[in-house]
Amino acid sequence: MPPKLVFVLPIVLLGWAIQAILRPPPTKLCGSPGGPPLTSPRIKLRDGRYLAYREDGVQKDKARFKIITVHAFDSTKDFPLPVSKELVEELGIYLLAFDRAGYGESDPNPDRDVKSEALDIEELADQLELGQKFYVLGTSMGGYSVWGCLQYIPHRLSGAALVVPIINYWWPSFPAELSRQAFKKLVVPEQRTLWLAHHVPSLLYLWMTQRWLPSSAAAMHHPEIFSKHDMEVLQKMMAMPRTIENKSRQQGTSESIHRDLLVAFGSWEFDPMNITNPFSQNEGSVHIWQGYEDRLVLVELQRYISKKLPWIKYHEVPEGGHMFMLVDGWTDRIIKALLVGEEPSDV
């Protein structure tokens, strides 16, 4: 064998091996041979992808208020917003949930970013004929989709609510020391995961699938990420009959939870703290709801955002953790504040 080939061949083989390790397996598309079955209505987007959705509440043509809800990390549209039937009927609320790209029964989007999420929401609203304006409500990881709406389609919004919205520690407006100290409060596996997602995204798949060290605490549902209140919420939920199957990862993890981490904690095209008020005439409102005891999304950074954006109505729940909205009527209170301006007196 020629000397040059002896030297080059191992390098090429090593490169192929590394690529094979770093490259995620193909996505199991819903409705494809060997893939998960299709059980939900879907729309075809302009780029050819399909987006699955779910409608709840009053009939669309009779609704006074139309809300598009954006699900959290490792979740789907099939987990309905825990709003009371009485409030839905009293206010005439139509609810539209959808599987974000790569989740549930929606096709993946390898080019997914904050902007594409907002444009998916806009196209969903148009195809389902919601009208010129609608409300958006995003929970946890779904919060970055709402930030995208405020940046890219503010003219389509009647109002917006961000409930324990995820925070990117590398947003430029954060003081470096504040962001660093908050980041250090996260459990160590979460710190490592978010650091990789931001600085070395090509290694995230390998990190999330290796078994030697704990990776994302959120993906593994590690008990350290839950506050005392969160644990109480989980106990209540576990005592209830389980009727909904979580299909968030059924097409694979690389284009669902992994892609979510890459988008949320990667480099954004904009800094949310530079967004201008889309409702300068008070024709609508934007709300942030934050649990003081939240261990996943830290209160000190949320407070800083609210000071930088004083036009946002900031609500802090003293005993609340990351899951406070799931119990004690909090979702009703969040929706009342968004739709009719009824502010709770204790936050």
Automatic annotation (TrEMBL):
Signal peptide: 1-17
Keywords, sorted A to Z: Signal
Pfam families: Abhydrolase_6 (PF12697)
InterPro entries: AB_hydrolase_1, AB_hydrolase_fold
Residue ranges of domain AB hydrolase-1 in the record: 89-326
Xref: SUPFAM superfamilies: alpha/beta-Hydrolases
Transmembrane regions listed in the UniProt entry: none
Protein name (Swiss-Prot/TrEMBL): AB hydrolase-1 domain-containing protein
Lineage, opening ranks: Eukaryota, Viridiplantae, Streptophyta, Embryophyta, Tracheophyta
